[in-house]
Amino acid sequence: MQASSRSSSMERTSQWVSSQDVPTDLVVRVAGAAFPLHKAVMVPKCGYIRKAVAMATRPDPASTVEIELDGLPGGADAFEKAARYCYGANFEISARNAAALLCAAAFLDMQPADGGLARRVEEFLAQAGLRTLPNAIAVLRSCEGLLLTATEELGVARRAADAVALRVCNEVLFPTRSPPEWWASELAALSPASFHRVFTALRCRRAGPEVLVAAATAYAELLLADGKASDHRALLESVVAVLPSADDAPLPAAFLCRLLHDAVTTEASAKTCRDLELRLAAVLDQATAGDLLALALDGAGECVINTESLRRVIAAFVERESGAGRNRRASLSGAAALGAGALQKVAKMVDEVAAEIATDESLPISKFVGVAGAVPKDARATHDCLYRAVDIYLKAHPELDEIEREKVCSVMDTLKLSYTARLHASQNKRLPLQAVLSALYYDQLKLRSAGVGHDDEDNDARSEAGSARMQAKADAALARENEALRSELARMRAHMSSGVQQSKGSGSRTAATATVAGKKASFFGSMSRTLSRLNPFRAGGGWSKDTSSIRDSRGGAMNVVKPRRRRSSIS
């Protein structure tokens, strides 16, 4: 292999060496290629060779000198063009070899009075090499790899990156091609390190956020689309490492969802995944339910595989909004309302996603509750959409027992269901008994409280005494309702017990009567404790809720306006 490269280099050299009749007295070997040359031609124009020849010819100046140049930037191709320059032969300078020729000229110390090879390369860069975007990108690409260190020392890589940034800014202001953002696809040819240089140059030139976003998204999408499966993970981590910060250019939520999905699928580093999760949390209110589903589902969109990243993104957004909400409340009420609107929007979007993933029969309760419960309950104005997601999950998992169904229902608040949703919940056999009783009890409480409050609102609402009387009347109405409910349940239980007694023989009548009496006492005690837990005025666990928020804002009795009926979307 080396012999063939040497012979080819000698053949090429013989084509442009003008003094072929004069025997060669200098052999330069570069990366396995041998170049037979003349000292008289190379020494005056090349300081490195002049010093090497002077050191090698002290015993016999007429002897042939051999020089090894294995560390020459640009290799044999760059040296051949440098030797052509010394012999006055023609050679081509292009955007692909200009950086290598500059590095070779600096290495060989080719600095005669007329500027030498470096001057000719600089003229080319100024007139053509850095004047167009494709050429500037080609020059920057040639600075990668083995030439990186040399081009950084000479400043060629920095100049090329700045030229790319300048041409991009010019294209944004004055497009020369169609479509206007054709330049973004050109950047995909760069390595992540070179793209980072271009992005830094764009920031130095104060390019607009839309330019930074277009450059980053186009570069990442095109580069990852062309990447091979073997190096996709490393390429993804490199791209994420050079993405602009959220302060410089917030990236689109859909784009970040796709990147995060790829990072999880390829098992990228925890640092890369966490970086993408925080970036997505910063713009989560701009995402759609489809974007989050693309993150949670597999590539075919059939199986839920990534709920943990989704939960962490939602939790990071809630934490971010909670901290920002405190600052907004301390400054402007309008900004606080804007932040609350973003949280409600994300809550609605999360409910839609929860309803979609609930159909997966293999989805555990913990993962469903983790996603649906990542947003605080008070962030939702109504829990109708969340109830729909819960009902879909219970329908897709009919094998759940009572305790497991209560765990699923723990993510929603029955006090925040609309009239239509509560009516559906009261007849829903999939819900646990505690949820059904809570919905029924609260509905009757609102009706009773509204009836009592309307009678005396005009006369007593303005005074504290009137407010106290209205509260006492509401409490009395609640007590009567509790007693009526207990009596009704007791009569129902007694009727069922009497049927059991009649079916038994007369010989066991006395024992059955004693057993029924004992069961009655046990039933009354259990029902009393259940109703006590369902009392919305009593703080505690379970499904009991504080109903103080439904009182009139003036401190009087409750004046509940019957909500407008709408078609239920719950199956």
From TrEMBL:
Residues 181-446 form the NPH3 domain. Pathway: Protein modification; protein ubiquitination. Pfam families: BTB (PF00651), NPH3 (PF03000). InterPro entries: BTB/POZ_dom (IPR000210), NPH3/RPT2-like (IPR043454), NPH3_dom (IPR027356), SKP1/BTB/POZ_sf (IPR011333). Keywords: Ubl conjugation pathway. Residues 24-95 form the BTB domain. This is NPH3 domain-containing protein. It comes from Triticum aestivum (Wheat).
